[in-house]
Please model this.
Amino acid sequence: MNLTVRPLRGDEYDGWLEATKAGYVGDMIRAGVPEAGAREKGEQDFATLLGSGVETEGQSLYILEAGDEVVGNLWLSERKDDLGKTLFVYNVAIGEGHRGRGLGRAAMEWVEGEARRRGISFVTLNVFGGNDVARGLYRSLGYDEIAVYMRKAL
Model:
């Protein structure tokens, strides 16, 4: 299946923001973050990272399409970390009805090509605990785990 990646349009931003924020908060809750804390962190993180919406400098928002159908979305940012300049994947989401068809793999391969086009040598991302499907995909693409963040509630 061919995947097309195009920039998110301004008229798509509000729907994208609502769905992406809900997914982020849900991921945190499933990983064990208390709901109130997850919701507060979600609001803070999105306000900080996307203060100017779709026009926020340094943030790249995309829609993923297969044929005429929207199948997911992608959020990237150029960042500097301990290893140097990286293309950071804040979010890659494939809609539930479209999973298992290689679209996530195709999206990540597109990200790697985009990093090369931008002259960036690293792609970095975060995976919440318990997301074994995503971890398996990233490992199969050659990603290394750099750190594992763990916590115990008392």
Helices lie at 13-30, 35-49, 103-117, 132-140. Residues 73 and 130 are 21 Å apart (CA to CA).
